[in-house]
Amino acid sequence: MKNIVYKALVVEEAEENVFTKRVKDTELDTLPAGDVIVRVKYSSLNYKDALSASGNRGVTREYPHTPGIDAAGTVIESSVHGLTEGQPVVVSGYDLGMNTPGGFGQYIRVPAGWVMKLPPGLNMKESMIFGTAGFTAGMSVDRISDAVRPEDGEIVVTGATGGVGSIAIAILSKMGYAVVGVSGKEDANAFLTKLGAREIISRKIFAERSGRPLLKARWAGVVDTAGGEILAAAITSTRPLGLVTCCGNVASPELPLTVFPFILRGVTLAGIDSQNCPMALRKRIWKRLAAEWKIAALDEIYREVTLAALPDEIEKMLKGQQKGRVIVNLDL
Ligand SMILES: NC(=O)c1ccc[n+]([C@@H]2O[C@H](COP(=O)([O-])OP(=O)(O)OC[C@H]3O[C@@H](n4cnc5c(N)ncnc54)[C@H](OP(=O)(O)O)[C@@H]3O)[C@@H](O)[C@H]2O)c1
After folding, report:
1. Which of 87, 131, 257, 304 has the most CB atoms at less than 10 Å from its CB?
2. Are 291 and 315 contacting, i.e. CB atoms less than 8 angstroms apart?
3. 5-118+301-329 homologous superfamily
4. What is the Å distance from ligand 1's center to 47 Cα?
5. How far apart are CA 88 and CA 173, in angstroms?
6. Can you give the pTM of this predicted structure?
7. 103 band by pLDDT with thresholds 50, 70 and 90
8. Cα distance between residue 182 and residue 244, in whole Å
C-alpha cells in the first residue's frame, strides 16, 4: 500500500520526564508491521490512555508515541482470510495504544488476532461509547451475575461516575440489581440516579473504617475501580459468599486488608483484566453489550471530541474529573 500522511496525537518527551502532546502529521510507513490496516473512525479515552499520554513507563516504554487503547474503523488492507477491505471492526486492548501506536491516530496496523468484527447491534460510535471501559464493566458484571442474583442483595460500584463505574451501574440496574454508587463528586446524584443507582454514598464516608478488619456486612457484590482503602472498605463490608471484582487503582494500587473477609465470610475477590481477555470471552461479552446489556442511557453518557481537544480531556481524567465517557471522532 502506498504511503499515506494522516493525523495523530503524538506524545513526546520534550526533556527528561516532561511530556508534550500535540496533533501531528504522521506517515503510514512508520507504523509497525502487522496483518491488518484499519482506518480509524472513532476512539475513546480510557484511564490507561491518560497514563500513557503523561509518560507512565508502566504503560508505555518509549516515546514519541500515539496512545489510544480503543479503535473502531474500517479495514483498508488485510493479509488474512476473513478480514476483507471495508469490514467494520473494533480493536481494543492487547498492546494497542501501549507500545503499539493506537487509536488516537487515523490509521493503525495490528496483528489479525487483535481484530474483532463490529458486533451486530452496535455501530462504530456506540462501540466506542462502551470502549474498554464498557467492556471492563461487562466483564465485571459477568463475574458478579455468575455468583450473585438480584434477590441476594445490593451491589456497590466505586468510581461511580467514571467510565467503568457509570456503565456498570447502568447494566446492573438494567439486569434488576439494586445498585449503590460511591462517588467523590458532589454533583453526582442526578447523573447516577438516571443510570439506575438507588443510593449514592460519598467516597470519604465509604472509605472510613478506622482500621477494623471487618465491617457490618452489606454488599452482595462489588464492582471496584479504585483500589486502596476504598476496595478494602468494600471487601470488609461484603456479605458472606459475596463477590468483589477488582479492575482499577485510581485511588491506590495498595490493598490494606486482613484475610478475615475471605476466611470468615467466604468472600471471593475476582480480578478483571480486559487487556488480555481471550478472544472467545471478548466476543461473548461484546455480544451481550450489543444486545441485553445495551443500556438506554448510552447516548447520554458521552461527549464527542476532536484529537486536538484530547490534551485537556486527559488532564481532567487524571484529576478524576471526568463523568461518563469521552469518545474521539477522528474525522473532525
Ligand atoms: N483491569 C482492566 O482491564 C481495566 C480496564 C479499564 C479500566 N481499568 C481501570 O479502572 C479504573 C477506572 O477506569 P475508568 O476508565 O473508569 O476511569 P475514569 O473514567 O477516569 O473514572 C475513574 C473514576 O474514579 C473516581 N476517582 C478518581 N480519582 C479517585 C481517587 N483518587 N480515589 C477514588 N476514586 C477516584 C472518579 O469517580 P467519582 O468521582 O464518581 O468517585 C473517576 O471518575 C482505572 O484505574 C483504570 O486503569 C482497568
Report:
1. 131
2. no
3. Medium-chain alcohol dehydrogenases, catalytic domain (3.90.180.10)
4. 7
5. 30
6. 0.98
7. very high
8. 14
